[in-house]
Amino acid sequence: MYGDTIADQKLLKYDHLSMMDRLVLFLAEYLGTAILVFLGCAGCVKYREGSGPGSLEVAFAFGFAIIIAVQTVGHISGAHINPVITLAALIMGVTPLIQVPLYLGGQFLGSLTGYGLLKTLVPQEYIKRSQDNVSLCSPEPNPKLQDAQIVFMEFLLTFFLVLIVCSAWDNRNSTKLDSLAIKLGLAVAGLALVGGGFTGAHLNPARTFGPVLINGDWGYHWVYWVGPLPGSIAGSLFYRIIFQKPLKETEEKSDGKITPSTNA
């Protein structure tokens, strides 16, 4: 999520990583995703009588979890911590295909570990909510929505998320990446605030996978693949086709050889 700009794709065209480098990349994604799922889902726990954490609290729990994860491993693996970001990175030319299995493996195992650790630490009555029989952090879209509406909302939210991340990879944005972890965390919190009441705003198949596999809540699991993955493809292709400038042109602009327009 945080990683290289498009200008760095020359270095990523061929993968010369050692086995130790690959292990470090895998472990960074594993740890980052475990942090995201553990801290984000911990913020959803209803630990006293009442209605439990509201939409604002949940949104910021995941937003701050993103900040912590990106700050921790962003300089190591790019902190994708989400398969839709890895897919977008592949399409944008930021991450080579040979590294994708390392990212995905770390993300899904990290999700299982993060949620498994939370379930070990939290009393069972906080995990399984008797009123709706859906476990903590498992898919629970608004029951008044049709399946197509749920899928399309996840598609749109993921589309916007991917546009934000693609802009961070853009070489023209390379001087504006200070405090990027905070910016990304607040962006995720904003999307969660908008979409939480509709779909839960997962935007991340790996984040969904851990709670679903451990709790067996498979009912709406498919939604969080069918919506976000096409959203990632659409968002990254849109940015690449419409907004991305040829690498040579962006380098010339940075050298002062081309005067950028005010809309660049």
Automatic annotation (TrEMBL):
Top-level taxon: Eukaryota
Transmembrane segments: 23-48, 54-73, 85-104, 150-169, 181-202, 222-243
Subcellular localization(s) per the UniProt record: Membrane
Gene Ontology CC terms: plasma membrane
Presence of keyword Transmembrane helix: yes
InterPro entries, per database record: Aquaporin-like, Aquaporin_transptr, MIP
Lineage, uppermost ranks: Eukaryota, Metazoa, Ecdysozoa, Arthropoda, Hexapoda
GO MF annotation terms: channel activity
Key words of the record: Membrane, Transmembrane, Transmembrane helix, Transport
Protein name, UniProt field: Uncharacterized protein
Family of the protein in this entry: Belongs to the MIP/aquaporin (TC 1.A.8) family.
Organism the protein comes from: Acanthoscelides obtectus
UniProt membrane topology term: Multi-pass membrane protein
